[in-house]
Amino acid sequence: MPDADRRPEATAFGNVTAMAGRVRPMSATTAETAPRGGEWVYEVGWGGVRVLVSTDGGEPTVLTRRGRDVSAWFPELSGFAEAVAGAVPVTLDGELLVVDGTATDPGPVEARLRMSAATAAREARRRPATFTVYDILCHRGRDTRGFAWEHRRTVLERLDLSGPAWGTAPVADDPDEARRLSDEYGRDGIVAKRRASTYHDRRTRDWVAVRHRHVAQLVVGGWWTAPEGTALLVGERTDDGLVHRGSVRRGVDAVPDLAVALDGLDRTESPFRGRKPSGVGRAHWVDPLLPVEVRHGGIDPGGLLTDPELVRVRIDLL
């Protein structure tokens, strides 16, 4: 079986954390459709916080994409060194997310990075993050980046990572199966990876990210002035009332006469069921009569659209 130590061209590193600090995670190009063929494999596009996690047997070091050390923000990884004891010094590439059942959510992890380390440690007990691992850059102190993805994957799978706050990302041989996994985990895309690809700290066509876009028919229940400009508060009609689906900023400026369409619909109370939408500043409520079409990446565990974009006002439905 593959072993990085048996390859004479594998460079040895004296300090695995220093090595990780000099590396930037490999990035994918984007495409509308995934490439197909036997030379490709497919993973879920997790959309989480990208990190490199390294250990030489002691407490792990967690570095963000830009090299920020956030180890103290993720105390749930404190037992990780023991899980990879036979592979140290080791550096692994992956993403941090909060897992709720089968659904995954990067939002709480992103929010934690804006907290103090002490507050983040308390948040870790309330909503622990999971390190989803999909690549290995250093194994037993030797650089594995020059090996093919297929070889690196075999080395990674031999680690048999399965713990309370870490695990190995699943892979699929077919993009349709990867899409099914993406939907199962509540994510909005997949990544195709060439089996023969080596690891580069730059964007490359050997990895191709494909976003799944959905279209929803919603109604406007209000608007507010976001830092970037006007954003619409949109909702979905259900038998139990109007369910808030999020704040849509992208695409709003491209829709002509939107202000005219909302004129005369003002109301004093929120039209949405339950609690008022949070984090939207001072909202201006309107009667939910204006139908709109919104393109998005999916629905997060909180019921909000991911990456929403206003496509058009459905004048034809008025």
From TrEMBL:
Q: Name one Pfam family in it.
A: DNA_ligase_A_C
The residues covered by the ATP-dependent DNA ligase family profile domain are: 36-208
Key words of the record: Ligase
Which ranges carry the DNA ligase ATP-dependent C-terminal domain?
Answer: 230-316
What does UniProt give as the signal peptide span? none
**Enzyme Commission number(s) of this protein:** 6.5.1.1
Q: Which reaction is catalysed here?
A: ATP + (deoxyribonucleotide)n-3'-hydroxyl + 5'-phospho-(deoxyribonucleotide)m = (deoxyribonucleotide)n+m + AMP + diphosphate
Q: Which InterPro entries match?
A: DNA_ligase_ATP-dep_C, DNA_ligase_ATP-dep_cent, NA-bd_OB-fold
Main EC class the enzyme belongs to: ligase
Q: Does the keyword Aminoacyl-tRNA synthetase apply?
A: no
A single Gene Ontology MF term assigned here is: DNA ligase (ATP) activity
GO BP terms, alphabetized: DNA recombination; DNA repair
Name listed for the protein in its UniProt record: DNA ligase (ATP)
Q: Which organism is it from?
A: Stackebrandtia albiflava
